[in-house]
Write a structure and sequence with these properties.
Length: about 575
Amino acid sequence: MKMNRFRKSFSLFGALLLLVSSWLPLNSKVYAADPVNDFTPGTSAQQLVNHLIQGSPISVVPDSETLKGLLKDTSTYSKLDAGTLPDSTRLTLNQGIFINSTGGSGAAYDDQQLQDVLTGANNFSQVTNATALQFQFTVPEGKTSIAVDFIFASQEGYTSDYDVAAVFVDDVNYAFMPNGSILRVNQGANLNNYSSPILSGWNSWSPPQTLVGLLDPNRAVHTLRIAVANTDDDSVPSGIFISNISSGNSTTGGVTTEALAPIANPPGGEVAAGTTVALSTSTGGAAIYYTTDGSSPTSSSQLYSAPIPVSTAMTIKAIAVKAGLSDSAVMSESYTITPQNSVISPTSASFDKYAASAGYADVTTTLTLNGNTLSGIQNGSTALVANTDYTVSGSTVTIKKEYLAAQPEGTTSLTFTFSAGAPQTLAIAVSDTTPQNSLITPTSASFDKYETSAGYADVETTLTLNGNTLSGIQNGSTALVANTDYTVSGSTVTIKKEYLAAQPEGTTSLTFAFSAGAPQTLAITVSDTTPQNSLITPTSASFDKYAASAGYADVTTTLTLKGNTLSSIDNGSTP
């Protein structure tokens, strides 16, 4: 109690100074000059916990977060860098939270759990101005412990033996040193006399350390409680920085005396080829040794001196080594390379199914594989057949025109798949400009060369052009003469009878040619029903009127009728 009386004898001015200092929130307004120490006052217990567990494998039970004390006594930060202790230990921690005991005069928050910790250490000081953050959580299956990195700091002198902090895991305090000391402002708790140039007024600092808490195997849901308090006064604060909650399978709890494991930035996962991985440890003066072949590192492994390039899949394992401390736990981070997408160029094309068009041609595209290989080409769910539907020569893929000619009009989307990376699509607009055939009706007719017959007439046929035009009419290799051999009026073509009368009997095939499409044929059966002359044989004879002569006899002649009949026999005008 003598020391307590000495402590209470501070000048009023000094006490006021300390009080004002303790009320200043650790936030970016105070430390705006250093973007690393971007302290931001806590806004709720949930916000503090969410910030603390970001990137952690543990899962918080919703609405289990509670805060005892004042929010103004809490802060979050992205990274702590409070300088370097005399033994070259760097006071750095990754993203975390800060809880301190500055409640201000009269803010006498007691805390039974902290009081029990003090009593258990045979210290009967009175806990005041306690701040405690508590929440429930679960861990991945099979994990039996959690660990946190922390720094304990105070505005008390490091030999004063005042103020206390504790970290309760499932209601058990694991904030005790290997020597058995609880976490108090004294040298037994590994505090050093150090005035941080960055955090003014904080004169006692522990190095960054790791605390391991063992999980109660009988609990499915666990509890973490971080608490700090003044003892016997309410004017000089102490606080605890907490960072990097992880789960593990430790069998011994408490504050470890080994170097803090290295941290990789970026952490393991999928990265672009050429990414460099920086290793660091919060243990000042520690050397880092690493391997990239999956083996466990030792102090004989590669000494880390510069970021490690990752160009292929690898696992980086590293330890931190420092004289006077046990080697750190092995950091292990596995990296895979983010595949670069292959590229095809062009990604669109067109094809015309009309075999006589310029668009009826193979379609080619060029591959930029970016280290991948072509696995295949799909049209919907149907795979194209290599060397039949397509060929590959070097970086050029050729889609065969015979394959495209079998596709329907519209867009044929061909999906190129690769050994890695995203598939690529070649969209081919398939059209068909094949002309429609023109039609003639009728396609056959007849003509009689007998001028007096009904069949001796012009032959007509009607054109259905389907967008084409009549180019001409051929009879074999001979072209008919327009307006002489034939005429065109609207859709009617007239083959002149005078032309047909000059054709031989049989079939005259007239070929109608058009601007596009197939030619059409008009088959005209040419006949000649002109009657043939009948014949008499002989056509001359003699007769002797002398009755007694041999020439006095009938005269006969033979008829060849040729389809006719004998109508009469005339002698001059006399029948």
